[in-house]
Amino acid sequence: MKRILVAPSILAADFADMRNEVKRIDRAGADRVHIDVMDGHFVNNITFGPALISSIRSATDLPFETHLMIERPDLYIKQFSDAGSDILIVHVEADHTMARTLRMIKACRKRAGIALNPNTPVSAARKYMKDIDMLLMMSVYPGFGGQKFIGSVLKKIKEVRRIDGSRLTIGVDGGVNVQTAEQAIRAGANEMIAGTTVFKARSYGRAISELRCPHLLSKL
Q1: d(Cα 218, Cα 208) in Å, to the nearest integer?
Q2: Which stretches of 60-189 are assigned E, i.e. beta strand?
Q3: 52 SS3 class
Q4: pLDDT tens, position by position, 164-188
Q5: Pairing relation of β-strands 87-91 and 5-8?
Q6: 31, 36, 39, 74: which is the annotated catalytic residue?
């Protein structure tokens, strides 16, 4: 039975109580903390910076997975690394040289990931797959939480699994709930990024457990 990782996105957490929210998802069994960084340029929304990451870093030992939805991620790799990020995810659609940015991440001794928007083909990331640890499939258009899952991403997940086998972590981000998580796991994904599904649930622990779809894994 393969393990499904769950990374709650703190974009849906209570901003006024962020340290305690991080502690709660840790106790509830989360595998990673997903941090959506938006700059108001690559996407319209503005969210967190390195200072927020620094302020919550001591609240948990869970890996911080920092998703840089910013126009020039290469200019900020060291800042986010120094703030406490463990995994740095950058978009192929952003304005940077991907190979150089990945080298910068590795030079900081961090794990590297690439994110693909729903309309970006897998081919845009294929030549970098040997250099990354994670491929993040956006199942909504980035910028805001609470959007509906775009089903066409499932075909892309299957394509990546055919190319890569089982090495890469394939994350799914956007509109993830129990039903869409099951579809993504069947396609080959092994990490669920979920915001409202976790943070709006009565029980964080139950929500995280259900996103792993244990009823499905026993059959795969």
Answers
A1: 17
A2: 64-69, 87-91, 111-116, 134-138, 169-173
A3: helix
A4: 878 899 999 999 999 999 999 999 9
A5: unpaired
A6: 36
Known active-site residue 14: no
pLDDT of res. 6 = 98
Options 31, 39, 74, 173, the catalytic residue: 173
Instruction: Give the per-residue pLDDT at 144.
Output: 66
**Averaged pLDDT score across all residues of the chain:** 94
Tokens describing residue 219: 């059959």
- Look-up: residue for tokens 């997975």? 65
Contact predicate 210/203, CB 8 Å: no
CATH architecture classification, 5-217 = Alpha-Beta Barrel (3.20)
17 is catalytic: no
pLDDT over threshold 60, residue 132: yes
Q: What's the longest Cα–Cα distance across the chain?
A: 45
Rounding to the nearest 10 degrees, give the CA dihedral for residues 105, 90, 71, 15: -100
